[in-house]
């Protein structure tokens, strides 16, 4: 069984996340994709919405795709938030799986990954989705630092650059502007019902 691991805060999950996950599933020949939200924020700000709310939004967003599922391993009290610690736990939970980690180019190029070699050793593939604004030379430097024996596990997904971000969505919601069609209707309805991200008016 080949499983994709798509980690992030998903604050909130949006259509670009779903597009990348489905594209990776097809391009990498995956049997399914795990959406793995985290509470830890080593590389970015603390999530704005609670873990309960973010999980609810993920479940609503993926309900129509049987190949997608939610995994809460990185929300447990003993989770460090580091991928190198997450992968052995997933390997115990899914002992027959070979893992492909799915990541946006911005997350790879803008952060210093902890124990990156260890992460790659626990994976079959490390699939990078292009992201608008990320220079190719920045990615090349990161990949060049990977030991040659592990470098063949790293691949770029053949996708268009996607500018959409959760930050943009939170900003638009707080401004009372429409975010419809940037995220699934189930997620938008949940944000409105729970008054998340400073939601005040119908948009």
Please give a structural write-up.
This protein has helices spanning 15-27, 51-62, 83-93, 105-109, 116-121, 136-144, 148-151, 166-174, 185-194; strands at residues 2-8, 32-37, 68-70, 98-104, 125-129, 154-156. By secondary structure, the chain is α/β, with parallel strands linked by helices. It has a single domain (2-198), classed as HUPs (Rossmann fold). The protein has a six-stranded parallel sheet. Strand 2 (32-37), helix 2 (51-62) and strand 3 (68-70) form a beta-alpha-beta unit. The longest helix is centred in the first third of the chain and has 13 residues, at 15-27. 34% of the residues are buried. The mean pLDDT is 90.
Short description:
The protein is α/β, with parallel strands linked by helices. It is 39% helix and 15% strand. The radius of gyration is 17 Å and the shape is globular.
Write the layout of secondary structure elements.
Elements: E1 2-8, H1 15-27, E2 32-37, H2 51-62, E3 68-70, H3 83-93, E4 98-104, H4 105-109, H5 116-121, E5 125-129, H6 136-144, H7 148-151, E6 154-156, H8 166-174, H9 185-194
Parallel strand pairs: 1-2, 1-4, 2-3, 4-5, 5-6
Helix pairs in contact: 2-9
Could you tell me how far the N terminus lies from the C terminus, measured between alpha carbons in angstroms?
Answer: 42 Å
**Going by CATH, what is the homologous superfamily?**
HUPs
Helix content: 25-40%
According to DSSP, the number of beta strands is 6
Strand order of the largest sheet: 3-2-1-4-5-6
Low-confidence stretches: none
Instruction: Tell me the fraction of residues in β-strands, as a range.
Output: 15-25%
Main sheet record: 6 strands, parallel
Under CATH, the topology can be stated as Rossmann fold
How many separate helices? 9
Structural class: alpha/beta
């Amino acid at each position: 069984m080949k499983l994709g691991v798509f980690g992030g805060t998903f604050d909130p999950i949006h259509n670009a996340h779903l597009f990348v996950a489905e594209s990776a599933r097809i391009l990498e020949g995956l049997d399914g994709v795990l959406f793995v939200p985290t509470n830890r924020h080593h590389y970015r700000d603390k999530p704005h919405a609670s873990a309960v709310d973010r999980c609810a939004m993920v479940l609503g967003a993926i309900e129509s795709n049987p190949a997608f599922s939610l995994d809460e391993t990185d929300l447990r009290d003993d989770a460090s938030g580091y991928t190198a610690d997450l992968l052995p736990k997933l390997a115990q939970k899914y002992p027959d799986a070979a893992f492909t980690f799915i990541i946006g180019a911005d997350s790879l190029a803008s952060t210093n990954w902890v124990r990156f070699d260890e992460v790659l050793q626990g994976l079959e593939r490390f699939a990078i989705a292009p992201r608008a604004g990320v220079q190719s030379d920045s990615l090349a430097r990161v990949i060049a630092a990977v030991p040659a024996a592990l470098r063949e596990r790293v691949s770029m997904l053949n996708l268009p650059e996607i500018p959409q971000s959760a930050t943009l969505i939170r900003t638009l919601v707080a401004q009372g502007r429409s975010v419809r069609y940037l995220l699934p209707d189930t997620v938008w309805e949940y944000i409105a019902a729970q008054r998340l991200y400073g939601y005040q008016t119908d948009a």
